[in-house]
Design brief:
By secondary structure, this protein is of the alpha+beta class. The protein is built from eight helices and six strands. The chain folds into two domains: 131 residues, no CATH class; 82 residues, 3-Layer(aba) Sandwich (Glutaredoxin). The protein has a four-stranded mixed sheet with strand order 4-3-5-6, covered by helices on one side. It has a two-stranded antiparallel ribbon with strand order 1-2. α1 runs antiparallel to α2 and α4 packs across α6.
């Protein structure tokens, strides 16, 4: 009889966050199958992987076979891992889809060397992510998000009345954009509070409009501000 461990985030409803172990399980699956496809020459496996990624990205986690295996069989036994923002691994899946699709097309076009190179690239990066936690696609997402925010506008001030913080009081405060299920968000708030800093949180699940306005592409994101909302420093994100 399997002992099911309670989880805080429903994998099929709370899709803006994800158990950090789930992407690594998916990466291990994709990396292993890609490696087998290249080593055996059975390249249609690459096309099947691309199709599975496309279906999962379009229709949701219930249609992602590695996701279902993880959430239905692995997670209930191991317990829930750290909860993180789901956007970076989702972006990484789009990159994987593009490269796997290109590899399959290369094989069809008779460019076996190119197809194998692309397949090995996916296998290497996916297995590296599964083994170490370093996800190249996630890293690119965060870099792009930071650059996009820098290009859009320099954030010099938060509208405190709009944030519901008009009565915040004098002195320095930290305004943190968080998600209630995000493990890193809880860790950040705990560490700031332990350091004696005054923290006010904005739940991006309840206020997606504010997340869009201030370019919150990944949570947690936090700013040190004065009582007028003038940004003194970027604390996290």
């Amino acid at each position: 009889m399997t002992h099911s461990i309670p989880r805080t985030a429903d994998p099929y409803r709370d899709v803006d966050v994800i158990d950090a172990r789930a992407p690594r399980f998916n990466q291990a699956t994709v990396g292993t199958i890609s490696l087998v496809a290249v080593l055996t020459g059975w390249w249609p496996l690459l096309a099947l992987l691309a199709a599975q990624l496309a279906i999962g990205l379009r229709l949701g986690r219930r249609w992602c076979l590695p996701c279902v295996v993880y959430f239905e069989f692995v997670q209930p036994r191991l317990g829930e891992g750290p909860i993180e923002d789901s956007r970076p691994p989702r972006f990484a899946n789009y990159i994987g889809l593009a490269v796997l699709g290109a590899a399959a097309v290369a094989y069809v076009a008779g460019q076996a060397t190119l197809g194998a190179t692309l397949g090995l690239l996916v296998a290497t990066l996916a297995l590296l992510a599964a083994a170490t936690g370093f996800c190249a696609g996630c890293f690119l997402y965060r870099v792009a998000a930071r650059m996009r925010g820098i290009r859009t506008a320099r954030l010099d001030r938060l509208a405190m009345d709009e944030l519901g913080l008009a009565d915040i009081g004098r002195g320095e405060h930290v305004v943190a954009f968080t998600h209630p299920l995000c493990t890193d968000c809880h860790s950040l708030i705990d560490s700031l509070s332990a350091a004696g800093r005054r923290v006010r949180t904005i739940d991006v699940r309840d206020r997606p409009d504010l997340a869009r306005k201030y370019g919150v592409a990944v949570v947690p994101m936090a700013f040190a501000v004065d009582e007028r909302g003038m940004v003194l420093a970027r604390v996290a994100g």
